[in-house]
Design goal:
The protein is mostly helical and 170 residues long. The protein has helices at 2-15, 18-23, 31-37, 39-76, 82-136, 160-167, and strands at residues 26-29, 140-143, 157-158. It starts with a helix and ends with a helix.
Amino acid sequence: MKLIKLLVVIVAFAFVGKGEAQDLKFGHIHIQEMVNQLPDKIAADKELTTEGQKLQEQLQVMQQDLNNKFNEYIAQRDTLPDLIRATKEKEIQDYEQRINQFSQIAKTSITQKEQQLLQPIIVKVQKAIDEVGQEQGLVYIFDISSQVVVYHSEKSIDCAPLVKAKLGVQ
């Protein structure tokens, strides 16, 4: 069935006028590479790094506090009554769970912050790509960073310089 569909598509293109086929223009861009060079992306990365470092420092403080509590408990364990020993063990376990919970919340927070910072950049880049495509009369602009396009000829227009110009970036 797939072979029949492919054959129909090939036959259909064979009957398309040669003038129409020659007027088709395609472009390509390496979006990931270009976005990583944008000042907005660099600033967003810096902000994410700063936020991540703050959370990491807090996690280290909490971990050090847990280690201190644990070492204190180990030093006193043999001299403590059973009830106090069980209470201290429970405190240590609870604190360890809070650290794990904090770690998970911190990861989620960083992911949400990243999405919040990158969304306007992605929208801005997409708008610039759309404008370049329309201005250049392109049928498609392929993102070669996704590794989906297996071939592009020299006739394919590299849209990165045009998109960068739209974004006001060198």
